[in-house]
Amino acid sequence: MKYLLGIDIGTSGTKTVLFDRGGNPISSSTAEYPLYQPEIGWAEQDPQDWWNAVCITINQVIKDSNINPESISGIGLSGQMHGLVMLDGNGNVLRKSIIWCDQRTAKECVEITEKVGEKRLIDITANPALTGFTASKILWVRNNEPEIYEKCRKILLPKDYIRYMLTGEFATEVSDASGMQLLDIKNRCWSKEVLNALDIPIEYLGDVHESIVVSGKVHKKAAEVTGLKENTPVVGGAGDQAAGAIGNGIIKSGQISSTIGTSGVVFAHLDEPIIDEKGRVHTFCHAVPGAWHMMGVTQGAGLSLKWFRDNFCTNEIEVAKGMGIDPYVLMTKEAEKVPAGSRGVIYLPYLMGERTPHLNPKAKGVFFGLSAAHTKNEMLRAVIEGVSYSLLDCMEIIKDTGMNPTNVMVSGGGGKSELWRQILADMFNCKVSTNKSSEGPALGVALLAGVGTGVYKDIDEACSIAISENSVQFPKEENSLVYKRYYEIYKKIYDDLKGTFELL
């Protein structure tokens, strides 16, 4: 029996899953780690925490499955995108990683735009300069921590640091590299023009591969601490969104998915790169060789519900602990008591600024429409609806390119909620479904590993074997009409408050 290992280095934790050739999970393990926020709008993590979590979860998965590690044909890596890992000449981490949701680099985005040129930057990287992307983080370190930058010899993304720790190789792949703002998106290679303009040595970057290419093999030291067999192949893998799309079977033109994790994403497969000249959505290389994708991103999706849980749902947490269930189960029941529209309470989910469609790191979270008649339940449902409105923002821009989805595949933690899926179906006004497997990015990169190591002929075969539709929800006309009215107010609130965010 051949097995495949998918490792997803997320923001809240790392999840490692062992799959058989049919895409069925055999064993799974998750290890969490902290997020550091030394200042408002900053977000950092320690790469050592990621590596510790990878070692713990791989060992646990092998132990729980009781398989011989020699039967693992290949390993796929997925991870949070855009994070900056800086290494010195000896391969040691120089500082905590500045991760995707960090908003400190507004000045550096102006610097990038001035040095490369606004139009030329979009022509090459398919996106305007964004605070979330890696290039601006590199410049921030150079501008603010020159003593650290002087020691830097390698720059890696989060999952590619794990690749280095497993294999000793400095490498990445096109889907994740697309989010660094240093890649020539159309030609799927590092842009010498952008690198030269920003004075970033190309030798600081790893070799860039297609996502199915074997990029290295597990070395002896890593085998000893993980329990893996030495020389097990590690493929390129993918950034978390492209990986999740593979895990949802989004591999052909016109297919669309929506993921509700810490951030929220609407993702559309493209056979050719389509670039939004306003920069409201991102165009990146897909993990499918020779394909691209467009995605809109809302920064504070599951993050908003977690924030609400941690600050306002102490009772639900305690009761759920006594019942042995997830607090979100009780929270969902409370939200279900409230009708569509949350009785006029509207939430803007901009706890970490926003990317789509506003590109505004200074945007803030807002509850609007509160009255003495409202309770916590209305606020709770408003959080779920507010995140869904932000995903509708993403969907509307993608529709502007000519796509008109009849089905959206939903995944991520929020995608497990029947209530949340119904709200999306009502807002998108189309069918919403889930995959039989809820493993998302971990499954996606396991399938990529299977293609790269010959377990499958190609990605089409891998997805046809491992992926099938599970639950289905259809829009309810009466709810769709309610959300259509409130969505117009939701959009107006941001427009009205934009200047006030700046003052704040």
TrEMBL record:
Active site residues according to the UniProt entry:
240
Site (Important for activity) location in chain: 8
UniProt-annotated binding residues for substrate: 81-82
- Say yes or no: keyword Secreted present: no
Q: Where is the Carbohydrate kinase FGGY C-terminal domain?
A: 258-451
Q: Per the UniProt entry, what are the Gene Ontology biological process annotations, in alphabetical order?
A: D-xylose metabolic process; xylulose catabolic process
Which residue range or ranges hold the Carbohydrate kinase FGGY N-terminal domain? 3-247
| Catalytic activity annotation | D-xylulose + ATP = D-xylulose 5-phosphate + ADP + H(+)
The Swiss-Prot or TrEMBL record annotates one GO molecular function as: ATP binding
Enzyme Commission code? 2.7.1.17
Record's SUPFAM superfamilies?
A: Actin-like ATPase domain
Q: Which UniProt keywords apply?
A: ATP-binding, Carbohydrate metabolism, Kinase, Nucleotide-binding, Transferase, Xylose metabolism
> Which parts pass through the membrane?
none
Question: What's one Pfam family here?
Answer: FGGY_C
Family that this chain belongs to = Belongs to the FGGY kinase family.
HAMAP family found in the cross-reference section: XylB
Q: What does this protein do?
A: Catalyzes the phosphorylation of D-xylulose to D-xylulose 5-phosphate.
Return the protein name. Xylulose kinase
Q: What is the originating organism of this protein?
A: Clostridium sulfidigenes
Q: What is this protein's gene name? A: xylB
